[in-house]
Specification:
The protein has 394 residues and is α/β, with parallel strands linked by helices. It contains 16 helices and eleven strands. It is globular. Helix 6 runs parallel beside helix 9 and helix 7 runs parallel beside helix 9.
């Protein structure tokens, strides 16, 4: 499939702003990313989105690269990638796909991919050691092939994301399970430490190989988190940390975070859920972490809530950037960019129609900042569009 039109006309300017953002600088305005349908197009709601674009297609059809990218290109031409939202293709096989390279075939169920292979602590070290990172490893080969296939297609039109490799203990949990990890940390910590070293070494090998492919063709890289950089970067995570006390977090997680972060130019730590917040102060002391992405998790106050504002200010006070989604509260956009330091902030947003986007986008990017009466604005906007269409019938 050949793209009919460029996906983003202002991609050069957007990339320049992102380059500055990584170094906590502003060129002409703060960074913000958003999706909005092009005029006359619609984004389906709820389950209908799966008929429009299935983000889990590859998790169900492992080797149908061509169809996955065709669908991505098709949907992308109906969307505006606004602000610093750089179009990207994400080869999504599920979270922690590194576990597949170690021998687990993912199972797609309930709109995600699950990785599980019951393994005892006595078996885990030889299992991990025996895994070879080469083209004879079916999942390593698959990830290299899909990444190169996509990167050749994307080239300068869109970037490619390194797939969701996962965190070290999250990968280990796919084999041992949470209970066994905790018990082994207490009884035989040397087993956990050996596993961590094996996983991290091979994880970084996979990361480097995928990164090299993408940078060769696309001159920039993204990830499952929609940030673009011309230099090496990746989201670091340990969702398992929600089960650890601060001491064990420092012993079993922090050394790996530091090694990963120092391995690349930039690093964003994915902080997931209130139980992980007790580790925030420790994370903020790691110089090589560039920023924090905060995800409150289901059942908690959304990112846009002022409940989290003290944490946002603490993160920025430590010289780190904040990456947050404000999908649920677009009316809070202007507020966030005024309350927080825009040099250390980027938000991502989805607008279901263009009138909503223009009304709620901050004034610095040409929006109204949510000021005034939205219903009145929407009516005036629709009337203006009708007049424009009637005056340009072609």
């Amino acid at each position: 499939m050949k793209l009919l039109n460029k996906l983003k006309e202002d991609i050069i300017e957007a990339k320049e702003r992102m380059e500055a953002w990584w170094d906590h600088e502003i060129i002409d305005r703060p960074c913000i990313g958003f999706w909005v349908p092009k005029e006359g197009k619609k984004i389906p709601k709820g389950d209908a989105i799966l008929e429009f674009f299935d983000p889990w297609f590859l998790a169900k059809n492992w080797d149908n690269f061509d169809h996955a990218i065709n669908e991505f290109e098709k949907i992308s031409q109906t969307l505006e990638f606004g602000g610093e939202n750089i179009p990207r293709f994400f080869p999504n096989y599920g979270p922690c796909v590194m576990a597949a390279i170690f021998g687990i075939n993912p199972v797609y169920q309930s709109r995600t991919a699950w990785f599980h292979m019951k393994t005892s602590p006595a078996e885990i070290i030889p299992l991990l050691e025996n895994v070879k990172i080469n083209m004879n490893n079916p999942w390593y080969a698959r990830l290299k092939k899909v990444t190169e296939f996509a990167a050749k297609r994307g080239n300068t039109d869109y970037c490619i994301a390194i797939t969701d490799i996962g965190g070290v203990l999250d990968i280990l949990s796919a084999f041992l399970g949470p209970t066994n990890i905790i018990l082994t940390m207490k009884r035989n910590p040397e087993i956990i430490n050996t596993c961590r070293a094996i996983i991290l070494e091979k994880l970084l090998k996979v990361y480097d190989d995928l990164l090299a492919i993408i940078l060769h063709y696309c001159k920039g890289v993204s990830s499952w988190m929609p940030l673009w950089s011309s230099k090496s970067w990746y989201p670091i995570q340990c969702d398992f940390s929600a089960m650890l006390n601060p001491k064990w977090f420092k012993n079993f997680v922090v050394p790996d975070i530091i090694k990963q972060a120092e391995h690349m130019e930039y690093a964003i730590y994915h902080l997931d859920g209130p139980l992980a917040l007790e580790h925030l102060d420790t994370l903020l002391k790691i110089d090589s972490i560039t920023g924090i992405q905060w995800v409150p998790g289901a059942g908690n106050e959304p990112c846009a809530s002022d409940t989290w504002m003290p944490f946002y200010k603490k993160i920025q006070g430590a010289g780190k950037s904040i990456v947050i989604d404000l999908f649920d509260r677009p009316e809070r956009l202007e507020h966030f960019y005024k309350i927080l330091n825009p040099k250390y902030l980027i938000t991502f947003n989805i607008f279901m129609d263009r009138a909503r986007a223009y009304f709620f986008l901050p004034e610095f990017i040409g929006g109204k900042g949510g000021k005034g009466n939205y219903r009145k604005f929407k009516k005036e906007y629709r009337n203006a569009i009708k007049i424009k269409k009637n005056s340009n019938p072609s």
